[in-house]
């Protein structure tokens, strides 16, 4: 049995760890509230620009074939895979599940005799892909705690340029969609070509039971094709920005949950060690009493 001093030192160590995990939980909770507010503000705008893009693409008809970002190429031999991870760990399975989903998509892509081109945001994704021998075409780090629109624009510019220059034929993005602090859903979306992308989000899909609503005809000035030339790049940027914000909120929620679990585990270990220390103390007292009794018996 360990001595009282050793057990006491272990209890002090776990108490220090518990203080750190509780502080990290509080910080993540505060950041999560801000991230939720940013998502709540962006989601209506992202939904609106998706609907506008879909409407304009439908009304443009055959004219959209002249827009490179809307053109669907066959065969799609080069697939860009963008993994949205975090710069930091200590967030449970937040990073590992994205990396695992990305590697699975990469294996499926290569099994179909296609080339996977890797992009990643966050130090965790960049380091994991590099460790596994994947050559990164684009690596973006240093902003996952609070992404700005400029970060999404920089990534979108690189992806759109690669698509227009025919260096990639398709762009897939994998990120953690935010549901609640306890739930983050691994989400895969086709970003480019826009014609194959998910222009309607899951929360916007019309119900099969809902009656079809008639839409008033839309008059365009200038023509739909000219509007799409401006609207489509904005759509790609907004889609990326939304994915970054969703990932940030998911990261803070996952870290808050992980730190709460770590604090609870530390409390249980402290209780177990306190019992162990009490047993050690009782054993020492019993030993001392036995020695006293034995000494008294020897004097008789």
The counted number of beta strands is: 5
Query: Taking strands numbered 1, 2, ... along the chain, how are they ordered across the largest sheet?
Result: 3-2-1-4-5
> How large a portion of the residues is in β-strands, by DSSP E?
5-15%
What is the CATH superfamily label?
Answer: ATP synthase, F1 complex, gamma subunit
Shape: elongated
C-alpha end-to-end distance = 33 Å
Main sheet, how many strands, which sense, barrel?
Answer: 5 strands, mixed
Provide the CATH top-level class. Alpha Beta
* Helix segment tally: 5
CATH topology: Pyruvate Kinase, Chain: A, domain 1
Query: How does the helix and strand content classify structurally?
Result: alpha/beta
Could you report the average pLDDT, rounded to the nearest whole number? Answer: 84
Domain module tally: 1
**Helical content (DSSP H or I, runs of 4+):** 55-70%
Level-2 CATH architecture: 3-Layer(aba) Sandwich
Radius of gyration: 28 Å
Low-confidence stretches: 199-214
Series of secondary-structure elements, N-terminal to C-terminal: HEHEHEHEEH
Could you describe the 3D structure shown?
The protein is α/β, with parallel strands linked by helices. It has a single domain (25-200, 221-256), classed as Pyruvate Kinase, Chain: A, domain 1, CATH 3.40.1380.10. Helix content is 59%, strand content 13%. It is built from five helices and five strands; from the N terminus they run αβαβαβαββα. It has a five-stranded mixed beta sheet, sandwiched between helices. Strand 2 (115-121), helix 3 and strand 3 (136-140) form a beta-alpha-beta unit. Helix 1 (4-60) runs antiparallel to helix 5 and helix 4 packs across helix 5. The radius of gyration is 28 Å and the shape is elongated. The protein starts with a helix and ends with a helix.
